[in-house]
Amino acid sequence: MSWTVRDSSFDKARIITNGNKYMTGNGYMGYRGTLEEFGRDQLAAVTLAGVYDQAGERWREPVNAPNGLYTALVCNGQRLSVLETEPLDHKQELDIRSAVHRRETVYRIPEGGELIYTAERFASMAELHVLASRQTVKCTADCRITIETGIDSEVWDINGPHLQDKQEMFKNGVLLASAVTGELQLPVAVAELSVFGFGGLKLSKAGALRRVTFDAKAGEIYEWFKYAAVYTGLDMEGAPEELAEQAVQAAAEKGYRELLQAHRRVWEERWSRCDCLIEGDAAAQLALRYSMYQLMIIAPTASEKVSIPARGLSGQVYKGAVFWDTEMFMLPFFLHSDPGVARNLMMYRIHTLDGARRKAAEYGYLGAFYAWESQDSGDDACTLFNVNDVFTGRPMRTYFRDEQVHISADVVHGIWQYIQFTGDDSLLLDGGAGVIWECARFFYSYAYYNPVKERYEILDVTGPDEYHERVNNNAFTNALVKETLEIALSCAELLESRYPESYRELHRQFTGGPFLTEFRTLLEGLYLPRPDPDTLLIEQFDRYFQLEEVTLPELRSRVINKNEYWGGGNGLATTTRILKQADVVLMLHLFKSAFTKEVKQANWEFYEPRTEHGSSLSACIYALVAAEIGSPDWGYPYFMRTATVDLTGESKQYVGDLYIGGTHPAANGGAWMAAVLGFAGVQFDGATVCLKPALPKHWQSVELPVTLRGGQYSLRVTRDEIVITAAAGNREALAFAGFGSPAELCGPGAELRLRLAEPAAAEN
Amino acid sequence: MSWTVRDSSFDKARIITNGNKYMTGNGYMGYRGTLEEFGRDQLAAVTLAGVYDQAGERWREPVNAPNGLYTALVCNGQRLSVLETEPLDHKQELDIRSAVHRRETVYRIPEGGELIYTAERFASMAELHVLASRQTVKCTADCRITIETGIDSEVWDINGPHLQDKQEMFKNGVLLASAVTGELQLPVAVAELSVFGFGGLKLSKAGALRRVTFDAKAGEIYEWFKYAAVYTGLDMEGAPEELAEQAVQAAAEKGYRELLQAHRRVWEERWSRCDCLIEGDAAAQLALRYSMYQLMIIAPTASEKVSIPARGLSGQVYKGAVFWDTEMFMLPFFLHSDPGVARNLMMYRIHTLDGARRKAAEYGYLGAFYAWESQDSGDDACTLFNVNDVFTGRPMRTYFRDEQVHISADVVHGIWQYIQFTGDDSLLLDGGAGVIWECARFFYSYAYYNPVKERYEILDVTGPDEYHERVNNNAFTNALVKETLEIALSCAELLESRYPESYRELHRQFTGGPFLTEFRTLLEGLYLPRPDPDTLLIEQFDRYFQLEEVTLPELRSRVINKNEYWGGGNGLATTTRILKQADVVLMLHLFKSAFTKEVKQANWEFYEPRTEHGSSLSACIYALVAAEIGSPDWGYPYFMRTATVDLTGESKQYVGDLYIGGTHPAANGGAWMAAVLGFAGVQFDGATVCLKPALPKHWQSVELPVTLRGGQYSLRVTRDEIVITAAAGNREALAFAGFGSPAELCGPGAELRLRLAEPAAAEN
């Protein structure tokens, strides 16, 4: 029950949101949750991770591969498709435990009787290039059936077309569709092989589709299997066409059941590292699992050259670009459950350092200014005009690209979190140290000294609250710059003490510019907006408190066009205190140990009613910090809103006239953060796991496995007791503290019980 | 001929622009060039200098007084007014030599025959509170005439009403209208006395109007006189009502002709100090005189508490506020012709220093940040939302108020120019030094140090080109900040050497904050955008060259609504290289000695086609600098455009949905600058008058008087000869140089002839 997502009828209006809801994928590709007969108009897509193309002057975006699982049915000469025929019954479901998608549709046969069509499919987690499907028909009256199946090369593109020189071939029973991308001339090949479990077939071909006709007998089940494989020029093993062909042949040899079994085994292993049990809340249980599922189907398990885009692999929205979402909202999940993926995500930033260096240089800064929208090269895909004005139709100048400088700090934060959580400091030697220092150097060149106030300031930035662009001393950004500088210094210390030779080598590369001395100067003089002594409020940025005080309903009542952008030069929110998303409150989460509970509470209460949550990255942070201040029930609705965003499909679909639909991996990661870091209160600082449970009132317990510094632990958290079990195979002990007690070590194979001394409110 | 402006027919469409074109005034009040029977709907207005009021939350603006010259005619029961009756003939003219307005209108008498109505009026330059008018009727057939005359209390207001507790009285033959302003409760009183030069009158009264009826005989001329006087609570001599009543009684006793004579005498004297003769260009001659006329009717000759608003005294547009226009565009005229007015203008800034201090403090800066829109107190009348978005009707956030920091430098520039031109350094002791130092202190607190580039920068400003707000290192602004710092240091040196005691006293007041040491530090480290070594171009601000390159016609073709604002967050010009007005080129004019002719020419040629001239302050600067680079004929069209702006009425009337019509004193001053400082090439640096004639091709000579450092000189400039004649009464000699020759002294009563060595092109 808590593993299945299901729709029991067909609703045309939900075709696009169901495409997101029923996503499958394996990190190499995403397969939208469309039905077998769907094409480009229904946004069917096989989105490839890390393969980008620019068509003409349009936005650069990921490439969608031809769809090797396309299948349509014709019965007695009439096309059977939910798009054309009202089905008698229809069911679409996703088994998130093993990432298998199923549909079952019952059609009326025109001449009488019914036809039951089922299709099951998965993107293999064991063979990342392979898609497999098992399909059946059964009818209650004899009829003639044609199965039109093969490869649909008419791919959906937002800013396409990306595939040129398309060729289709039929070779040894295998259909082959190949093309090259326009910009980088990357070959893309899809192979398909259909295996029919019954005879009496008449076969004809049309392009990359075959038509298989047979006379079906009432009551019989006709079963067939489809194997598709996708390779591109980025896969270095050989020629994509040959690899794809070999892959489908090999898949067919193994057979569907064996492929599925191997796929299931991988998923079982994945879940064993992260599945989180919530006692007392079935809805939250499903939503949380679903959030983890969405993260796992897009996680790069096999490549350190790609990261996770803001809309995952659900299409080309947001240019398939990687934002700060990855480090700040998704990384924590992987840090606790799959350090290998976490490492790949951070290696992606290391591989794209040159792009970040180019961007810094472009703006006249030193070091590395990471792309706001990062693709394969690390050059910024973000344009200076990222939203259209709905009133004039004109592109609107936005400052996402120029001024969200916190991105460089977010990358550093992610790398350092990785080091803290895994203890794997090899990442620093593999390029991490360079990234950290180049980012610190960037901030040194970005900072200005105010001679009257005798402090360094970070001017002209956009913080997380994008409705207020071009602000000075954004509290969030300044705090992250400070952290970057601290990390830059700590990194040098760590390397010097553990890897003195490598350190000397690296140090030499950095002597020609601002380095540790300058970082120290900036760190010591950096201005950090602090809580007001009376109100305890931290001002989001200089003069934020001078902005118009207006309620959200009042501001909404001023809306003229429902898609109008609230930020930018003339946006409705721009001159008010209304924020798009958690900003100061996110900072309080990140640096929780630097602020008292009173400060957190005062700022939560101040900013919460002023937050529009125009980003799916917002609600989870309010949930997290609500738990942190001991008010999980304030946070619970925010948690649920975050955890169900891709289930309900209730998210913004447009900004200006720009389509922004798709899945929401940052919200998926945020839901996990709220549940585990917030409600279960798992807080690891690299040395001690502090457990501060703050369970919503109807939750009895949370139980989950975590992987920390290479050790496996199982945690069970209730209101008054925490049980920690360390795997026998762990190599060392780890310190745990709970309910404010002193830390205790938990060695390999040991069990630790921490109990609430007296039933009082959770302490901060 | 070259002294008269005339319309020979009546055109309803020109009522408003003619109200500007036919302005009279005397610095105490402006009287719009409306006809006698006009009222608020025709924008009749008596705008009072320095009297401001705010009604409710609307914009604070000057107070218009009731119109004491209102007169309407009724003939045989029918109203005679150009608004209601098509006149047989109509003439409106302005004699700018003596500032007398005349109209003559011929109406058809309904029962047959014609009636000729004439009215002459002036705002007395001898008695600043007095308006006087002589009117006549003459008819070709007997008829019954009613003259409705008195005070029209229905004043035109943009953001009114401003007059409360209105009272009307008839006392000793004098009509009296009085009221108080809403905000400051200032009394405003207008008295009126009509004297009829004929008998047989029947009199009735209605409010502050009287109806005088008589039977007119064909061929007779019926003449009457009107005297009106205006006083307010700001006039410290006594109660406004009594003063006004006494003033009209006294005026009537003197009689119209004597009043007119006294008025003419003052005007004669004024013209003797400035009239500039252009040989070879009658159109330019009239336009230049007209420009000087417009400046003289609004110049504060009797008060150092008011300055000249951006729309002069032609109404309430731009809140009747004083902008940088005064120092940068009008002051030069007065510095060369009327140092007393120049001193008053600068004293106004000294009196409003506290307002500037308050504004600096409001934004967290030190020193004095002068108001972008300054009224009586020096507090900023500029709002944060100064333009409405025509597409949404919403107020648009603009940064005029926050970021046009050059205003403080402009004030300092003006004060120092005054000292240079007059030698009257008493102004420094009267508060000028305090203004200079407070402005320098403001910039010290505004500047930031860039530790990588090792320089101070001026960030986040708006320069003269208001289409580009929030820019860094605007070349114009940085150059003016530098000048401010230099002046601050020079001022200290000057005072220390000449007034050591006063200096010690002043110095003591400034020790508690950044002062000379800090000014020197900033001056030495300040970044000034310099000409590119290859292109010679000076970048208007950081990253200006990265903006979209687009032609003006192309940009115009993108306009959707003709009143849309081109600047602001989403303006058409904002993201392009198109500028509103001279910015770099204005800087080249101000600091001409710091740049080679090649640099000036390269920048003129680059920026000129990219300038929209959306401000009336723009064209004159291109004329000036064209002359400076020896291409006066490039500049001539810009000069004429500037000099005729109030004659043709061809200027922007709307920005967004904001009415901005009125006179253009900055353009008037700019026209004078282009002719005298540009074409005649009169360039005084406080020590030597450098004469660099660059006459347009059809100009034979320019001849004008100037007053410099207390001495009177007459200059006659031709292409190859300059003749300087010093008044016999001068106290000292002054150095003159021309055609690049070494300077020669010209003592009292002497004549100096400078000749072009050989007929070559004018040198830079």
Low-confidence blocks of residues of chain A: 760-764
> What coarse outline of chain A follows from CA principal-axis ratios?
globular
Number of strands of chain A: 33
Assign the CATH topology of the largest domain in chain A: Glycosyltransferase
Give the strand order, joined by hyphens, for the main sheet of chain A: 1-8-9-10-11-18-15-14-13
Named CATH architecture of the largest domain in chain A: Alpha/alpha barrel
Count structural domains of chain A: 3
Query: Helicity of chain A, in percent?
Result: 25-40%
What is the makeup of the main sheet of chain A?
9 strands, antiparallel
Characteristic key phrases:
homodimer, 764 residues, alpha+beta, Beta-galactosidase, Chain A, domain 5, Glycosyltransferase, Maltose phosphorylase, domain 3, 3 domains, 9-stranded antiparallel β-sheet, transferase (chains A, B), Glyco_hydro_65_N (chains A, B), Kojibiose phosphorylase (chains A, B)
Itemize the secondary structure elements and their pairings.
The structure is a homodimer of 764-residue chains.
Chain A: E1 4-7, H1 15-21, E2 24-25, E3 29-31, E4 46-53, E5 61-65, E6 67-75, E7 78-80, E8 89-95, E9 100-108, E10 114-123, E11 130-139, E12 143-152, E13 163-171, E14 174-181, E15 187-196, E16 202-206, E17 209-216, E18 221-232, H2 240-254, H3 256-274, E19 277-279, H4 282-296, H5 325-337, H6 339-351, H7 353-362, E20 387-388, E21 395-396, H8 400-403, H9 406-422, H10 426-446, E22 448-450, E23 455-457, H11 475-498, H12 500-509, H13 516-525, H14 552-557, H15 584-590, H16 597-607, H17 619-628, H18 632-643, H19 645-648, E24 654-655, E25 658-659, H20 665-679, E26 682-684, E27 688-691, E28 701-708, E29 711-718, E30 721-726, E31 734-738, E32 744-746, E33 751-755
Parallel strand pairs in A: 27-31
Antiparallel strand pairs in A: 1-8, 2-3, 3-4, 4-5, 6-7, 6-12, 8-9, 9-10, 10-11, 11-18, 12-17, 13-14, 14-15, 15-18, 16-17, 19-28, 20-21, 22-23, 24-25, 26-27, 28-29, 29-30, 30-33, 31-32
